[in-house]
Each structure stands twice: as C-alpha cells, then as structure tokens.
Amino acid sequence: MPEPGIGEWRRGLRRDLLIAGLSVAGAVVLTVGAFDGPAGLRWRLLGVAVVAAVAAGLVRTRPVTGVLVGGAAVLVDQVIGPSLATVLIYTQVLYDAGVHGPRRLARVLLWAGAMLTVAVTVLHLAGGRGQDAAVNGVLVALILIVPVTTGMSVREWRDRSAADRRHAEQVARLAAMDDRRAVAAERTRMARELHDVVANHLSVVAIHSTGALAAADPALRERALTVIRDHAVQGLAELRESIRVLRLDETALPGVEVGLDEVPALAERVRRTGLDVRVTTTGARRPLPIAVDMAAYRIVQESLTNAVKHGGDTVTLGITYGPGVLTVTVSNPVGVSSPDGSGAGLIGMRERASLLGGTFDAGAADGVFLVRVSLPTPKVSA
C-alpha cells in the first residue's frame, strides 16, 4: 500500500495531466476544427494554445511559473491571432493559481487584472470607441478577475472545511481520552472496592485457616473456624451488595452503603481473631456525607485487617469529629510482616482520602505503625 504522501502526489499528477490533456483537446477543436483562417496561422495558434495547456498543467505545483508561461502564451496569441482557445485555457490557469498558489500571488493577479481592465476601458474611451469600452472592460474582467476571485473563494471554503475537520478530529480525540480516563477511573474504583470487600475478609480467612490446620486444641480450632465462617459470611454479603450496586443504573452511588455505624460490629469481628481492639470516639457524632462515611469505614476496615496480618496483639482506633473534618487514627505495635502483602491496601486508603480532598499518612515509628486520615465533612442537607 503506497504511503499517504505518495498517493496524494499521484492523484495531483493525474489531475494535472488530465487538465493539460483536456486543454489540448479543446484547443484542437477551437483552432483546427473551428478556425477559418490560413492553415499556417491555425497551426501557430494551436502551438501557442498547447503552451498555455502546459502552463495549466504546471500551475498547481509551480504557480508562478504557470502564470508567467500562460501569460506569455496569451500575449503571443493576441499578437498573432487572437484565438479563443488560449484565452479560455488561461482562465483555468488563473483559477488554479487562486486555489493552489500563494495568497500573495492571488492578490497580485487581482491587482494586475483590475489595472488592465481599467487600462483597456480608458484606451477605448480615448480612442473614441466609447460604445465598445464597457463591453471590452467587462470581457477583460471576466477573463482576468473572475477566475482568480472564484479560485480564492474555493480555497477559502476548502481551508474552512479542513479546519472544521481538524477541529472535529480533535474533539473526537479529546472525547476518546475522556472515555479512557473515565473507564480507568471506574476500573480503579472497582478494584478498590473489590479489595476492600474481598481481600480483607480473605486475609483473615487465610490466617485463621492456617491456624486451624496447625491447632491441636479443639477449642482453638473451633474458635478459628468460627472466625473464618463469620468473615466468609460477611465478605459474601458485602460482595453481593457490591454486585448489586454495579448493576444499578444510578452511577452516582459511591459503592456499598456502609459507614461508621458499622464500626462496632467490625471491631467485634476483629476481636474474635484474638486481637484486642480499643475504640475511642471524640466529639459529637453527626451525620456525614455518604462518600465520607463509607470511605472512613473502608479505611478503618483496611487498617484493622493490616493489624491482624502484620501487627501485634493490640490495636487502637480513634475517631474524632472535629469542626468540618473527620479524623481517623489507627495504631498498633509493629509485628512480623506477612509474606503476602502487596501494598494495595495503603494505596486504596490514600486514593480514598485524596478523592475526597483529605490527607493520608501512614508509617512506623518507635515500634508503632500509625495510620492517620483526615477527611473534610461538608454539612449534610436535611
């Protein structure tokens, strides 16, 4: 398949050859077939017309050369003839110069055509042929001015059309980029939800299933299996709720509708794993925006899960209702790291805080791992 530039060049060459060929054919008809003068003059006029036809084939790629060659052919034709063929071919040369040539060339041609029109009119008036002045002035204008102005108008229309096409293509590209960004954002949100819903519960299930397999005491085994069952049931319920939300037409819902009201039940489930969870609430509790309420719950859930996997035997959870801000802190002693940690939980917590315009900090210091999140809390309309 030829390259686009080569294909365009070939189409232009075919067009130039076609115009030159048609011009020669028209010249033959008008000079050889319809000219009644001497045979020698007929062939000379045909030769001049052929030169004009060559200029018509050149003007698209060599506009100045084409205009000069065509103009010279018209001058010679007017001296030895004149003939209609060369003049008609030259109108095509001027039209193509207006369409394809430099804008400055088109302006020069318009100026020169106007000057010649005025000159011809004045000369006829000065020669006492006032009755022919208007007719000849109009004829010169039709030959020299109208083709150029028509070509300029066509060029202007083509330029506007090309600009409109480029604008439409740019809008389409921007729309496609917006679609890709929206899809990527939705995929990130879904990944974050699935991690919070499934991975947290499965992490507890994996840890306690390992303990159940290794436990020799039936009471310890039963306790581990109870924890496994509780987290499996809770995880399945939350997963079903996530699927229900994804199937809804209402895309404005932020996700599974859970909030800080569920923290006591969450803390109790974590206590059954053997971790001592201490919850403190500071400030007057108040209704929170759904997105803030759910994000805070998910951050607490992920932090407690990390404490189960990586921490010691105690975790402290603090929830503070401040003026226009909700602060959540989770701290636990640094324990033995779990080998299967991927860091996706911390990334998800940071993303949740960032999406709501909040701040997120997490790190270990003096043997304690601390997660601190601050979320702005706009007033909830009644």
SSE inventory with pairings:
Elements (H helix, E strand, L loop, with lengths): L3 H30 L5 H20 L4 H18 L3 H17 L2 H24 L3 H15 L1 H69 L3 H30 L15 H9 L4 E7 L7 H21 L3 E9 L2 E9 L10 H12 L3 E7 L2 E9 L6
Parallel strand pairs: 1-2
Antiparallel strand pairs: 2-3, 3-5, 4-5
Helix pairs in contact: 1-2, 1-4, 2-3, 2-4, 3-4, 4-7, 5-6, 7-8, 7-10, 9-10, 10-11
Explain briefly what this protein structure is.
This protein has eleven helices and five strands.
Number of domains: 2
> What is the first-to-last residue Cα distance?
66 Å
Tally of DSSP β-strands: 5
* CATH level-1 class of the largest domain: Alpha Beta
Rg, Å, rounded: 43 Å
Strand order of the largest sheet: 1-2-3-5-4
Share in β-strands:
5-15%
The secondary-structure class comes to alpha+beta
Protein name: histidine kinase
Catalytic activity: ATP + protein L-histidine = ADP + protein N-phospho-L-histidine
GO molecular function: ATP binding; phosphorelay sensor kinase activity; protein dimerization activity
Pfam family, one: HisKA_3
